[in-house]
Automatic annotation (TrEMBL):
<dbReference type="GO" id="GO:0047288">
    <property type="term" value="F:beta-D-galactosyl-(1-&gt;3)-N-acetyl-beta-D-galactosaminide alpha-2,3- sialyltransferase"/>
</dbReference>
<keyword id="KW-0812">Transmembrane</keyword>
<keyword id="KW-0732">Signal</keyword>
<dbReference type="InterPro" id="IPR012163">
    <property type="entry name" value="Sialyl_trans"/>
</dbReference>
<comment type="pathway">
    <text>Protein modification; protein glycosylation.</text>
</comment>
<dbReference type="GO" id="GO:0005576">
    <property type="term" value="C:extracellular region"/>
</dbReference>
<keyword id="KW-0735">Signal-anchor</keyword>
<feature type="disulfide bond">
    <location>
        <begin position="116"/>
        <end position="261"/>
    </location>
</feature>
<dbReference type="InterPro" id="IPR038578">
    <property type="entry name" value="GT29-like_sf"/>
</dbReference>
<comment type="similarity">
    <text>Belongs to the glycosyltransferase 29 family.</text>
</comment>
<feature type="signal peptide">
    <location>
        <begin position="1"/>
        <end position="23"/>
    </location>
</feature>
<keyword id="KW-0472">Membrane</keyword>
<keyword id="KW-0964">Secreted</keyword>
<dbReference type="GO" id="GO:0097503">
    <property type="term" value="P:sialylation"/>
</dbReference>
<dbReference type="GO" id="GO:0032580">
    <property type="term" value="C:Golgi cisterna membrane"/>
</dbReference>
<keyword id="KW-0328">Glycosyltransferase</keyword>
<comment type="subunit">
    <text>Homodimer; disulfide-linked. Homodimer formation occurs in the endoplasmic reticulum.</text>
</comment>
Amino acid sequence: MKLKEKALIVLLCVTAICVSWRGYRPCSLPQDKSPCACERCLSEDDLWFMKRFNKSVEPFLSANYNLSEDVFNWWKRLQSEKGNFSTFRQTVDRLFLTVPPSPDLLESSPDRCRTCAVVGNSVNLRRSHYGPLIDFHDVIIRVNTGRIKGYEADVGTRTTHRVMYPESSMDLDNTTHLVLAPFKTVDFEWLIINKTLEIHKFAPGLMSWFIKIGLKPNSDSQQVMVLNPAFMRYVHDMWLEKKGKYPSTGFLALILALHMCDEVSVFGYGADSDGNWSHYWEKLNNKRLKTGPHPGDTEYRMIQELDDLQELRFYTGF
């Protein structure tokens, strides 16, 4: 048998095997399997991105996570925390007696495309008509008291996760995960009380005390997740290069989405045309409204950079 004929027979055999293995899909040379089923997954090839993105960081606290004292000392300076490390650890231990010991997350898979919409509160959402596009995503993360009623055409109707701290809390239904962004030990106490007492009925004194110090009672949602102070430091150090005092809740939510999903879309971030950082549901009276301790301009430039690198899609509004 001639050499060419032998080579043709071998090629036909290989093709037949490929067809049988792949269910009659075109055969190709072996390649690394994509980590997700999206058109484009978060890239591990971009050096700029991978210099900042750390897969090993755990975004959420869990019962088995041991926060280092070094991270605690960084965290306690954010809002002049007065408790010591021992008090903090005891409080967190009590917290996980009332909330699930670990968060329920949708794991990555080559057969799955996890899509996230992160919805900020910028006035740039007004008249954007992004609502249907936002609702199309699997995970929809909103921030603090971002409103829906009356703004559905621009912001959508669904919420799966809401990142907030007690001073900006709101009632949640039982389909929405509360993602607590803690900045002090009393924030954990707030969550413990909410999970163990119906304070409106049985502890009016506690309710008055919370209101006095600026913490609003929240409805008892069983779906609770707590941002890890180590994750908050990672966002500040790696993504913001230590600019500003600490990241905004909105920017924490955005980096959280990069760790939770394969495709991330971002809506409602940035100042208005006059440079004011106002909310889409408010009439702006203070024409000098800036971002306080948050490095708003740095955060915005980082979002633009991620969009330029196609690591996320940034919808700026109209």
